[in-house]
């Protein structure tokens, strides 16, 4: 697996565009279909804003984003923070069918991440959350 | 993100262009809330120029719709584009809201249900 880019910045909303630009540039370089850049941008915003809002509970902290490609099958984005443990892959799908009064504000972002990428893996290593999102370079498993 | 309003057959049409993401949605939502506070009850939201929306944008829309409902108002959408349509579908917003192919059709719906 070849590293295409690494971006480390404070977990602050103002850095969202820089993170996303770095990842979409890496995805293009790594051979991801242009049509899927939107999926990547959206999944990245959801993961990053989640960390920015909740991981450090008001304290300062960084986010590290590493993009890799094996040039054959997968483009992989690893998003790492040192905040409180949070496994988004364990969060159940929100109810998407309720009426306006029933629908809750929130819970959709994680659903988008799972829907728009081919695979999402979480692991906790020491005090680090590591989320790995995989995008297939071979076929479009997700529209 | 650009936010414009105009009148169409007596109804207020809001055009939101660019992106509705975590950075831009607070401004869009506060402008929508401003319209409701100024007395607007029925809104047409024209999304022809919107090319990106995230869950932050959907939260802004849902909050606005709930505010309008509390005032017995309504919100309808027109001209959703490719990616935005996709996001509306995977979030279930497609069945939650009335969505039209043109501002004209959206305005007619509001006139019909007024």
Written overview of the protein:
Chain A has a single domain (2-136), classed as Histidine kinase-like ATPase, C-terminal domain (Heat Shock Protein 90). Helices cover 29% and strands 29% of the residues of chain A. Chain A has helices spanning 16-29, 37-55, 108-116, and strands at 2-10, 62-69, 74-81, 119-125, 128-136. In chain A, strands 1-2-3-5-4 form a 5-stranded antiparallel beta sheet, covered by helices on one side. In chain A, helix 1 runs antiparallel to helix 2 (37-55) and helix 2 (37-55) runs antiparallel to helix 3. Chain A is globular and about 45 Å long. The mean pLDDT of chain A is 93. By secondary structure, chain B is α/β, with parallel strands linked by helices. Chain B has a single domain, classed as Transcription Regulator spoIIAA (2-Layer Sandwich). Chain B has helices at residues 25-37, 55-70, 82-90, 93-96, 103-113, and strands at residues 2-8, 11-20, 42-46, 50-53, 74-78, 98-100. The relative contact order of chain B is 0.18. The mean pLDDT of chain B is 96. Chains A and B meet through helix 2 and helix 3 of A and helix 2 and helix 3 of B.
Using brief descriptors, characterize the structure shown.
heterodimer, A: 143 residues, alpha+beta, Heat Shock Protein 90, five-stranded antiparallel β-sheet, 3 helices, 5 strands, globular, B: 114 residues, alpha/beta, Transcription Regulator spoIIAA, six-stranded mixed β-sheet
At CATH level 2, the architecture of chain A is 2-Layer Sandwich
- Mean pLDDT across all residues of chain A, rounded? 93
Structural class of chain B: alpha/beta
Unreliable stretches of chain B: none
Fraction in helix of chain B: 40-55%
Strand order of the largest sheet of chain A: 1-2-3-5-4
Query: Ends of chain B: how far apart?
Result: 30 Å
Report the helical percentage of chain A: 25-40%
Q: According to CATH, what is the class of chain B?
A: Alpha Beta
Largest sheet of chain A: 5 strands, antiparallel
Task: Give the domain tally of chain A.
Answer: 1
CATH topology-level fold name of chain B: Transcription Regulator spoIIAA
Gyration radius of chain A (Cα, Å) is 15 Å
Multimeric status of the protein: heterodimer
Give the class of chain A from helix and strand content and strand pairing.
alpha+beta
* Major protein interface: A-B, 25 and 22 residues
């Amino acid at each position: 697996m070849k590293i295409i880019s690494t971006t480390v910045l404070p977990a602050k909303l103002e850095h969202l565009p820089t993170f996303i630009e770095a990842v979409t540039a890496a995805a293009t370089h790594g051979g991801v279909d242009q049509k899927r850049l939107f999926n990547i941008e959206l999944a990245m915003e959801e993961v990053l804003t989640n960390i920015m809002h909740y991981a450090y509970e008001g304290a300062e902290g960084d986010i590290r984003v590493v993009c890799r490609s094996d040039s054959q099958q997968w483009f992989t984005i690893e998003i790492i923070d040192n905040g409180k443990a949070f496994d988004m892959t364990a969060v159940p799908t929100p109810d998407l069918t309720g009426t306006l009064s029933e629908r809750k504000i929130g819970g959709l972002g994680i659903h988008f991440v799972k829907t728009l990428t081919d695979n999402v893996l979480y692991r906790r290593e020491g005090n680090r959350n590591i989320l790995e999102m995989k995008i297939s370079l071979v076929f479009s498993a997700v529209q | 993100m650009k936010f414009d309003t105009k009148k169409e057959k007596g109804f207020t049409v809001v055009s939101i262009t660019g992106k509705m993401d975590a950075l831009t949605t607070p401004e869009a939502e506060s402008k929508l809330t401003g319209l409701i506070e100024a007395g607007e009850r029925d809104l047409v939201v024209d999304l022809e120029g919107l090319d990106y929306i995230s869950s932050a944008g959907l939260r802004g829309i849902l909050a606005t719709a709930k505010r309008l409902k509390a005032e017995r108002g309504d919100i309808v959408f027109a001209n959703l584009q490719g990616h935005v349509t996709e996001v509306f579908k995977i979030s279930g917003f497609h069945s939650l809201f009335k969505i039209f192919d043109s501002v004209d059709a959206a305005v007619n719906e509001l006139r019909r249900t007024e």
